[in-house]
Amino acid sequence: MAYDLWYWPNIPGRGEFVRLALEAADIAYRDRAREEGADALVADLQARRGLRPFAPPYLVDGDFAIAHVAHILAWLADRHGFGAGDLPRDLELITLQLTISDMVAEVHAVHHPIGAGLYYEDQKEAAARAAAQFREERIPKFLHYFEDALAPNGGPFVLGSGWSHVDTSLLQLVEGLRYMFPQRMETLGERYPRLQACCEAVAGLARVAAYRASDRCIAFNEEGIFRHYPELDSR
Amino acid sequence: MAYDLWYWPNIPGRGEFVRLALEAADIAYRDRAREEGADALVADLQARRGLRPFAPPYLVDGDFAIAHVAHILAWLADRHGFGAGDLPRDLELITLQLTISDMVAEVHAVHHPIGAGLYYEDQKEAAARAAAQFREERIPKFLHYFEDALAPNGGPFVLGSGWSHVDTSLLQLVEGLRYMFPQRMETLGERYPRLQACCEAVAGLARVAAYRASDRCIAFNEEGIFRHYPELDSR
């Protein structure tokens, strides 16, 4: 039976980290809000009670719903065998995945530093200051960390020759940063050869390549997490 | 053998969510940086390589290190039996715990909206705007969500009569919000009776009460996540 994925239908956003792993692992899923619209997502989320997702994305399997990107991916990896298959390594992958989630939250906060409930246009000055901090301090700190995580097993993937959810997520993260900060990422580009090799290896996986060339894959845009506002970028 | 907990020694911060569960479950741990200082924490973190923690808190068991509050707590709950002991329920607890982590990150961003690398004094104007958004929109949205999660099993805890890491974390979260936003939380107080009952039940656990009365427990202060800046509070 196919999983139901619920996420906003017009952006890659956080949902894309889940989609990429589902596609890479050839797992059947229905992208419900892309079939039925954003109103159906809001209705589904509001109809849930008790222990339930706080926000999209969430994945539904029968009566069971699971939310948060890192949590969904760890669960899928365990069920579908694209983790390490060894508890301490799988737990280390989750630590990495949660750090990716933290960086994604910081990326969103760059263009919405005052609050997600306000328009970007109402917080542009604060965003410009936040972007300078993020470009200078945070991007190198996070990318150095991921570069380091790719060293012990020889690459191209974190676990070595087999991909995991961390690798597909690193591709999306780096592509998003390149979309949002093309100048800054060009400056930093050469510093992270293992990360570059990992992204190329993920992009070269047949199922990932087919997915990214399909109309199932939504392009980055200015409604999403990674937004290209030229005024927020700089070398 | 006792675990090593590594976290900043002068604030409750994110470490406190881990400490509370360790104390409630009577698990032996050494709070390393409180014994050896913040420099020892920095040195320990910098000496780690490969798949490693990005930031404190992290918990060390022999050669294995695990980071991120929700991840540490899920792992401890599984090992020491303070989760549900049933996979779907345990996964739902993790969804809740990750939502607590998201709220904690938003709390920090209220007083540091431009960036964690700048002083509060250099971002006070943006912080005042962020605080208004957070008080009005985010606190009620998150607290309503947790109130709802406490309903299905009849309380006082999320699972019913037995505490889990989510309950100890809800106490710390609510206490932190009361410290940071005393006026706002007084206004909202009556709206969440299940959350209030949960907090009282956790605070009434003998080991939690003994810990909070001890000098092992660090008081909230203006170096931490939850900071009382009166200018950020309002009814």
Automatic annotation (TrEMBL), chains A, B:
Question: Does the entry feature the keyword Transferase, yes or no?
Answer: yes
Keywords from UniProt, A to Z, are: Transferase
Tell me where on the tree of life, at the top rank, the source sits.
Answer: Bacteria
Q: Where is the GST C-terminal domain?
A: 85-232
Name the top EC class: transferase
Membrane spanning residue stretches:
none
The keyword Transferase appears for this protein: yes
Per its record, what are the GO molecular function terms? glutathione transferase activity
Enzyme Commission number:
2.5.1.18
Pfam families xref list: GST_C_3
Protein name per its UniProtKB record: Glutathione S-transferase
